[in-house]
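Researcher: I'm preparing a figure for a lab meeting and need a structural model of a single chain. I don't have an experimental structure, so a prediction will have to do for now. The sequence is pasted below. Please return the structure as tokens so I can convert it later.
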Amino acid sequence: MMVSGVIVIVVVCLLNGVVSPPVKEQEPEYRPDIENELTKLSYEKYLKEVVTLLEKDPVVKKKLEEADITDVRNGHIGNIVNSVPQDLRTALDEVKRKEMERLRNILRQAQINKSKLPGPNSPEFYDFLGHLDHNNQKTFEIKDLEKLVQKVHFDMKELDKQRRSDFKKYEMEKEIRLREQMKKLNETDRIRLEEEHREQIARHKEHPKMKHPGSKPQLEEVWEESDHLEKDDFNPKTFFALHDMNGDEMWDTFELEALFEKQLVEVYNSSDPDDDPAELVEEAARMREEVIRQVDKNNDGLVSKEEFMEYTTKQEFDRDEGWETIDEQEPVYTEEELRAYEEELLKEEERLKDKKKEFKRVKDIHTDSVARKRVQEM
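Model: Understood. Here is the structure written out token by token.
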């Protein structure tokens, strides 16, 4: 995997900004998609500044694009950092010093608040300082680039895990709200609501059948209907280049999910109240993960040109096994998980009530104390 490929996944989002899809009224708020999750990277400003500086020099940029992730992991990218011009190297040093100062300020604040600090071998320590070489606090060196790329790669996988977990909670909250609503209704209204809900589900399932993500039939549809080229002229090499938007011979998260856009908008209509935009976002991520599962041989989370071309020679590439959308599958949660989550929400609600009562009690004591003091002063 190319170094720039790993970093650009995140930086494209950070530089351009993202907009999360609207959430239907009366549904739990959901912040879906890895695009939004990327903003949770605590070192995003540092990452953006480092990449911007490295790509200012065309020679360095070319070397980054040609470097393999195996070289990064094995520490074989020294020449890349060493070839950075002195003015940019000085700027990188300054960026790192600012990042170290930011981290020191966080630690100082934690000490003031008497918070527990992470141990040097703990996951929390890696999460806090794993994106740079903290032993060298003044200059940006080879090890800093290695650690930054590796940390981004690790965090991207973790963010996908978090996305799946958040989506499951979102779906469970929808179901809990529906069941709570039904409990409050009389039998006639409950039966009517159940029927309306079944009809809504049935209407949404009337969408066109989706082709298997990454299969030749699915990509041919993109070639013909989005690229406006003749289906019989489909050429995998040309197709890859057309959808390699930054020309790094790598399909990243955004380039992969863009391949499914046409199919997705046919299934999920943002103006249709029966369709949930949060499910569209999750569907795109699931389809991306399916392509990665089939094509990504070095497990870097991206699809290289070489990996794609190799995949097109296999029989499974020609087959369209179809694709079951979220609404065509069993719920992403079990009844046991739903009950456990409902209990968790109830406990949280009780904790909030207790906090509210305690706040009111303290406030009343304070108000009473102030009132007595004023009386005494009169």
